[in-house]
Amino acid sequence: MLGVDDRVVIERVEFDEEVDAVVAHVRPRGLNKRRCGRCGRRAPGYDQGEGRRRWRALDLGELRSFVEADAPRVACAVHGPTVIQVPWARHAAGHTRAFDDTVAWLAVHTSKTAIVELLRIAWATVGAIVARVVEEARNEVDPFDGLARIGIDEISYKRGQRYLTVVVDHDSGRLVWAAKGHDKATLNGFFDMLGESRCAQIKLVSADAAEWVSDVVTRRCENATICLDAFHLVRWVTDALDEVRRDTWNEARRAGMRTHARDLKGARYALWKNPEDLTARQEAKLAWVAKVNRRLYRAYLLKEQFRTIIAVKGARSLDMLDAWLRWAARSRIPAFIQVGRRIRKNRPGFEAALLHDLSNALIESTNTKIRLLTRIAYGFREPDHLIALALLDRGGHRPQLPSRTR
Ligand SMILES: [Zn+2]
Question: I need a labelling partner for 335 at 20 to 30 A (CA). Which of 36, 160, 180, 327 fits?
């Protein structure tokens, strides 16, 4: 009851009419073994702190309930005067441990509205609770243990005005770390936390072609190979194709070929889509492009061949890449000549991506989830609370409901 266990003595339970709630008066068993609330070290008593206080506990049926107890302070050798550790709540929390755990469980399983209404708490409070649950979980297990193949990416939130740098573990599939910002200082913060010996164990780092990432990784992880994210490169090529389509369309319009221009505009999806997903109409559209606009169709074939290279992977794909780069260079299509140069410039990272086959699916699904969470986390006071929610959901800290065994 009330999320207290046998380490706790229940002195009495009363109904407090003033606040319309059940209040359980409790004390920890063995008061002479007082411990610091922050580090758990035994420490001598200091004073009575702010006297008695209440922690919100899970409702009893439709009634609110609280745990009430003294909250004296001890003189911790490390932390100075600190409120004692209590078995029913996390340090500095206004809610019981069982309440916190229930909030954390609900936060990954249900909607914002459901949590706020069911538990009668503010959404900002949910953020703070999730943050302390995650902090505790990450103190118990080293989230950086055994990292060898990681992915680094940036995610925008608040309509692209703010960024998070995120790190995922390709082997466990987990989100390992995230922080505000997307620059060298932010990423250096991660490697500082990792420490030199664990940095040396990193073998592969997948990342997009952002220079700030590769600069930091090269400097901090002496044994790591950078794999460029193949998905980003496909996007470069797709963007090049779209540029060709737009140019072709503009030319047709300027030349007064109105119908032709309109038909070209409609060809956008036929050119974009993977051939196996085309509808009959889109197939016809593509055939039409092949007939009336050779240059646009060549650009389309270049895009498709590039996708094939990514799908083939391994040593054989490197020869295909050489052939593709030659093709792009003599294509007489400026957008593709340019994208070819860009790929040549980033070639080592791209080759690593083809040879090591680090799937981008993990980064993508993590990003999608975090973007979703940024919308949910709107109303949290701190971006740190958004990060905590993301770690709770994707970091392997999925909470259990209180008093349930796995
Ligand atoms: Zn302490």
Answer: 160
Those residues whose C-beta lies under 8 Å from the C-beta of residue 246, and which sit 6 or more positions away, are: none
pLDDT number for residue 186: 94
Range of the domain at 164: 95-229+359-406
- Could you tell me the distance, in angstroms and rounded to a whole number, from the CA of residue 98 to the centre of ligand 1? 23
- Answer for the pair 335, 297: CB distance below 8 angstroms, yes or no: no
| Spatial separation of the C-alpha atoms in residues 229 and 360, rounded to whole Å | 7
Query: How far does residue 139's CA lie from ligand 1's centre (Å)?
Result: 15
Q: With pLDDT > 90 as the criterion, what percentage of the chain qualifies?
A: 50
Same domain, 310 and 379: no
Residue 306 pLDDT greater than 90, yes or no: yes
117 and 11 part of one domain: no
Distance (Å) from CA 282 to ligand 1 centroid = 68
Q: Which residues have CB atoms below 5 A from the ion given as ligand 1? A: 36, 38-39, 76, 78-79
Q: How many domains does the chain have?
A: 3
Joined together, the tokens standing for residue 54 give 């209440």
Closest to 152 in 3D by CA, of 317, 308, 349: 349
Q: How far is the CA of 86 from the centre of ligand 1 (A)?
A: 13
Q: Are residues 129 and 245 in the same domain?
A: no
Question: How far is the centre of ligand 1, averaged over its atoms, from the C-alpha of 37 (Å)?
Answer: 7
Ligand 1 centroid, distance to 7 Cα (angstroms): 20
Taking 70 as the threshold, does the pLDDT of residue 277 lie above it?
A: yes
Tens digits of residue pLDDT in 350-404: 888 888 877 667 777 887 888 778 777 777 777 888 899 889 888 888 788 887 7
Distance (Å) from CA 88 to ligand 1 centroid: 18
Q: How far apart are CA 39 and CA 105, in angstroms?
A: 25
Residues 80, 81, 87, 92: is their CA dihedral positive or negative? Answer: negative
258 shares a domain with 149: no
Confidence band (pLDDT; 50, 70, 90) for 3?
low
pLDDT of residue 271: 84
